[in-house]
Request: fold
Amino acid sequence: MNYWLHPEAREDLREAAEFYRDNAGAALSQSVLAEFEHSVNLPLEHPRLGSKWRYGKRRLVMRLFPFSVIYTVVDDQLRILAVAHHSRRPGYWRTRK
Reply:
């Protein structure tokens, strides 16, 4: 199985990394990216690991940061639709496919 990162999810991740870099330094920014990779690798091996969530999507909560990876499984591909902050604009990603 492989994964596809929605362009807007890529932007979500970039914004998160930039926020931590600007406010806490490069090391924490790199930690966000590493935590994202860890969070993606889990459902790559176990696609139903994330909890069923809104709008027919699945959600995997990142352990160390206030973000969730929102995804669906289509055929043999994990489609990451958002890297959603827990307290910003709830559901903003719901129209992404």
